[in-house]
Every structure is written in C-alpha cells, then in structure tokens.
Amino acid sequence: MLHIWQSLAPSSVIQTPDQDYTDFTKALIELNKHCLAHKIEIKHAIAIAQASGRIDHILGNLQTLYLAKQKQLLGYSTKLYMLSDDAISWLLFPGNHVIFIPEETRQYKKSWCSLVPIGESCMSVTTSGLKWNLDNAPLQFGELVSTSNAFDGSEEVKISCSNTVLWSMKVPNIL
C-alpha cells in the first residue's frame, strides 16, 4: 500500500455523481482506475471504516466488500480488508483458510470473532482454533450464523467454507 501512496500525485477531487454506489464502492472503482492507468498491482487494500452507528452504512460497507470481488472493483488478486477502531473484517471465499491470531488478541479476555454468510447461504463451514468450532455446519440467515465466537488460545484459526463468509475479529489496540 505504501507504493500506491508514493505513486499518487498530490490529492485531487474526483467527481463521482453516480448515486447507485456508496462512497466506499466509488473509492475502490477510482483506486482500480488509477492502478490500471499506472500499471500498479496491489496485493492488499485496507479501508478504514466505522463499524458502529447507522446499520444502513454498515450494510453498505459489507455490500462493497462483496462487490469488490463479484464485480472485480479491484485487481483479481487484491485482498480487501475493512478496519475499524477495534476490529478487522474481510471475506473468505470458498476454500481453505488459515488466519494467524496475534498473541495480544489470543490473551485478551474480551476478544471475539464471527463467521457470517454473505451473498448466499454457506452450505458447509468447518473450523479449528475457535472456542465453539463448527463441523461441516451450514450458515444462513434465519438459521445459524456464528457471531460472538471466541478463540481457544491457538496461534491460528483454520476455516474451510463452501461459500463466501464474512470473517470479523476484535483486535485490541489496533488504532
């Protein structure tokens, strides 16, 4: 990300009057245009966003996380993270994932994590490293969503999912 900021000219205002997209979505579209025009490849993009307050804004931010991959708002291999004052969230796409948990997070008694289906039901989720692991469990609204889970003290959490899920976790002293 440092390379992107170094390559940008002084700040400029870009008019994006289209009201079919949130400001977050429009920012990603403009970032992608800039990267394509300057042949810049980014591996990770971190958006700083508040995760409390207006539920419509929170849902809009989640929609943008989903659209980023579905509509390729960023490069195909760019991973998008949403960072708030005490948490980080990102989408896990179908497959196997290993998430390394910082020691401070593992030791913090009020740490939490969650797995929530996004865009569709998730037919199967299996985890290890959580206080309440899932074993081939389906996740869907109206049934099970894995909120307010916790870590079991392991250095890593392993997740296997059949469909896209939102992973969120508390990270003390992040900002």
UniProtKB/TrEMBL annotation:
Question: Which residue ranges does the record assign to the Thiamin pyrophosphokinase thiamin-binding domain?
Answer: 95-166
Sorted keywords for this record are:
ATP-binding, Kinase, Nucleotide-binding, Transferase
Query: Where do the coiled-coil regions begin and end?
Result: none
User: InterPro entries under this entry?
Assistant: Thi_PPkinase, Thiamin_PyroPKinase_B1-bd, TPK_B1-bd_sf, TPK_catalytic, TPK_catalytic_sf
Q: Enumerate the CDD domains for this protein.
A: TPK
Among Pfam families, the record links this protein to: TPK_B1_binding (PF04265), TPK_catalytic (PF04263)
Keyword RNA-binding recorded: no
SUPFAM superfamilies cross-referenced by the UniProt entry: Thiamin pyrophosphokinase, catalytic domain (SSF63999), Thiamin pyrophosphokinase, substrate-binding domain (SSF63862)
Q: Does the keyword Transferase apply?
A: yes
Protein name in the entry: Thiamin pyrophosphokinase thiamin-binding domain-containing protein
Which organism was this protein described from? Iphiclides podalirius (scarce swallowtail)
Query: Lineage, please?
Result: Eukaryota, Metazoa, Ecdysozoa, Arthropoda, Hexapoda
